[in-house]
């Protein structure tokens, strides 16, 4: 990037009390998809917007992309208000949409050149081929789009979002439906872009993805931000895991000597014990279970899933 350091904004993207209500249709009531979302996304970060399906992630992204009209609040991209200066604001952002939606009559290289033209990138500054190469699509530059696999189309969408070298790149569910190999490749590329200075914002409903890639994570549920902080801090707040024990003999009830644990017996006879990974040791838990007279036929530990995270973050607060 050619910008001088002192002219760079502190925040790549900001939302102030953003609201979206989709109007009623076909006898269904209106949907309040965003209920006053405020976010400050720092320049240079890899920011994860994590939430289950229907949380409002795409709605928020699409407002910044200019694809959805907000019904309230304010937004800034790269320090520029999206209502006052929409063109300037959008020049700073590249959005890779969740839905694969492409013109089937353009080849990948044509598609990128068209996009570059749309953004007014001068011919000599275009790097269409270089971008296709980085996305592993060089050999498909002149192929029919309809002959590309789903994964290739997704990479082409990402390539299109990169043609105007935006300092802010937004990826909406980049790896949904993408195989593991390609996922790793995409993650590496995202890290590389970030290392070269781009701010990356990605939405995901995979805790693992946010955990792996992002330095800051906001959790959004039912159109509200329920948490937003540095990844390490957030993970510490939700470090409970579950130890599942299959007893050799069927238990009728949880032994008295385990009453200090957060234990539950399921219908299949398995014993689930929730514990805090940071402070409780699995070894000691197993000892305690054995000491209560249970012989263990099988055991495993589970990481918290998104559902657990929401429960632990929202428990005790009205929703
Ligand atoms: P996410 O991306 O987190 O899965 P969305 O932003 O797609 O969530 O959806 C948030 C809510 O808004 C959902 O209840 C969804 O059904 C609703 N919604 C999304 N797009 C539209 C639309 N075009 N018209 C009406 N409702 C919509
Ligand atoms: Mg979505």
Walk me through what this model shows:
- There is one protein chain.
- With 319 residues, this protein is α/β, with parallel strands linked by helices.
- It has 2 domains: 11-235, Rossmann fold, CATH 3.40.50; 239-303, 2-Layer Sandwich (Alpha-Beta Plaits).
- 30% of the residues lie in helices and 28% in strands.
- It is built from 10 helices and 14 strands.
- The strands form 3 sheets. It has a 6-stranded mixed β-sheet, sandwiched between helices. The chain has a 4-stranded antiparallel β-sheet with strand order 2-1-4-5. It has a 4-stranded antiparallel β-sheet with strand order 12-13-11-14, with helices on one face.
- A hairpin with a 5-residue loop joins strand 12 (262-265) and strand 13 (271-276).
- Helix 3 (108-118) runs parallel beside helix 5.
- The protein is elongated, with a radius of gyration of 24 Å.
- The relative contact order is 0.13.
- The structure holds adenosine-5'-diphosphate and magnesium ion (MG).
- The site of adenosine-5'-diphosphate has 11 residues, from strand 2 and helix 1.
């Amino acid at each position: 990037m050619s910008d001088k350091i002192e002219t760079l904004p502190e925040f790549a993207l900001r939302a102030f009390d953003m609201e979206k209500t989709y109007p009623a249709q076909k006898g269904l009531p209106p949907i309040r998809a965003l209920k006053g979302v405020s976010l400050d996304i720092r320049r240079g970060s890899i920011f994860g917007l994590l939430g289950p399906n229907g949380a409002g992630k795409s709605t928020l992204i699409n407002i910044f992309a200019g694809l959805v009209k907000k019904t309230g609040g304010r937004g800034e991209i790269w320090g520029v208000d999206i209502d006052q200066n929409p063109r300037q604001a959008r020049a700073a952002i590249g959005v890779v949409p969740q839905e694969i939606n492409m013109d089937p009559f353009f080849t990948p290289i044509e598609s990128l050149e068209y996009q570059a033209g749309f953004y007014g990138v001068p011919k000599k500054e275009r790097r269409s081929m270089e971008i296709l190469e980085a996305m592993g699509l060089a050999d498909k530059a002149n192929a029919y789009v309809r002959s590309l696999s789903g994964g290739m189309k997704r990479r082409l969408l990402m390539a299109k979002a990169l043609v105007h070298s935006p300092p802010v790149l937004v990826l909406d569910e980049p790896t949904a439906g993408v195989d593991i190999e390609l996922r790793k490749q995409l993650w590496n590329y995202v890290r590389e872009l970030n290392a070269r200075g781009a701010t990356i914002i990605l939405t995901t409903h995979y805790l693992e993805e946010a955990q792996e890639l992002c330095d800051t994570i906001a959790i959004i549920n039912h159109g509200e931000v329920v948490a937003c902080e540095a990844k390490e801090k957030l993970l510490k707040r939700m470090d409970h895991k579950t130890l599942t024990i299959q007893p050799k003999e069927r238990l009728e009830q949880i032994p008295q000597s385990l009453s200090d644990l957060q234990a539950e017996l399921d219908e299949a006879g398995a014993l689930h014990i929730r514990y805090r990974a940071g402070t409780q040791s699995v070894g000691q838990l197993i000892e305690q279970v054995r000491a209560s007279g249970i012989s263990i036929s099988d055991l495993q530990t589970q990481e918290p899933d998104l559902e657990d995270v929401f429960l632990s973050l929202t428990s005790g607060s009205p929703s």
